[in-house]
Amino acid sequence: MKIIKNILRLIWRTWFGIVAGLPIIIFSPLIYISIVMDWQKMFTCLKYVWGNWVTFAMGFIVKVDKQAVIDPKQSYIIIANHTSMMDIMLLLKLICLPFVFVGKIELAKLPVFGYLYKKSNVTVDRKSPKSRKEVYEQVQYFVKKGNSIAIYPEGRIPDDENIILDPFKNGAFRMAIEHKLPILPLVFYDNKRKFPYNIYKGSPGVLRVKIMPVISTEKLTLDDLNDLRDFTYNRMYDELMQYQLQQQD
Predict the structure, then answer these.
(1) pLDDT above 70: residue 206
(2) What's residue 227's pLDDT?
(3) Interior CA angle at 108 toward 104 and 111, to 5°?
(4) DSSP code per residue over 164-229
(5) What pLDDT, in 10s, does the model give residues 16-52?
(6) Among 32, 63, 118, 171, whose Cα sits 20 to 30 Å from the Cα of 126?
(7) How many CB atoms lie under 10 A from the CB of residue 222?
(8) pTM of this prediction?
(9) In the chain, count of helices (H) and strands (E)?
(10) Cα dihedral across residues 165, 81, 53, 120: positive or negative
(11) Is 111 helix (H, G, I), strand (E, B) or coil?
(12) Contact (Cβ atoms closer than 8 angstroms) between residue 93 and residue 55
């Protein structure tokens, strides 16, 4: 029985590669044109459709508890806990605003997707101090164009499956303060369980998300960086812990 389940999960994971990768290949000319011509609305629409398509095709039903009032004219620092490849799809599905990811440069090496990713997002080589410094210049460029910035503040996928939320890095909060951008936190409750990086685990089903109230940084300085980081971390950690306890009851 276990062997059959593993085979079915492998087929399901292969299906993910198809439903996520094929639209990028098919629509790559359109995506490329929207990037080169700087057609932000068109590019945002393409990403939104892609995120919706992948979550639907993988058999996920997304349930959202939206507590934030999102201003379509405002740029944000969008953050979320990072546990799954579905984290990206959910952000694209839920946040219909022009935004770019801050992500590791290794993704830029992937065929087709990597080129488009590098052209439309902020890439960083975490081993290079120069690259980390250049991130802030790239962020400023995108923010001036009206983009929000999406970043996973844990900086990595936790190695231990029992970790609820890894400590946050300073980057997202420094950006928020320096650019006077409000923080929009999202909590993904089920992604780790329903679509983990372990290919022999997971299944279709419900993905619950909470879009938490916006955190203002208007009056903050870099002296407040640690307090802002810890406040945001504790709020998200408490949400995840409360949900985990409810699941155990």
Answers:
(1) yes
(2) 97
(3) 145
(4) S-PPPPSHHHHHHHHTT--EEEEEESSHHHHS-SSTTS--SEEEEEEEPPPB--TT--GGGHHHHH
(5) 999 998 998 888 889 889 888 888 888 889 999 999 9
(6) 32
(7) 12
(8) 0.91
(9) 9, 7
(10) negative
(11) coil
(12) yes
| Residue 140, pLDDT score | 86
CA quadruple 213, 219, 224, 229: dihedral, nearest 10: 20
Alpha-carbon distance 142 to 98, whole Å?
A: 10
Q: Which residues contact 135 (CB under 8 A, 6 or more apart)?
A: 102, 122, 124, 171
pLDDT value for 198: 86
The predicted model gives 83-95 an average pLDDT of 91
Domains of the chain: 2-248 (3.40.1130)
pLDDT reading at 247 higher than 90: no
- Give the chain's length: 249
Packing angle, helices 28-36 and 40-57, rounded to 10: 150
Name, in order, each residue with C-beta under 8 angstroms of 213's C-beta and a sequence gap of 6 or more: 67, 68
Residue identified by tokens 């830029």 is 108
Secondary structure percentages of the chain, helix, strand, coil, to 5: 50, 15, 35
Q: Angle of helix 86-94 relative to helix 40-57, nearest 10 degrees? A: 130
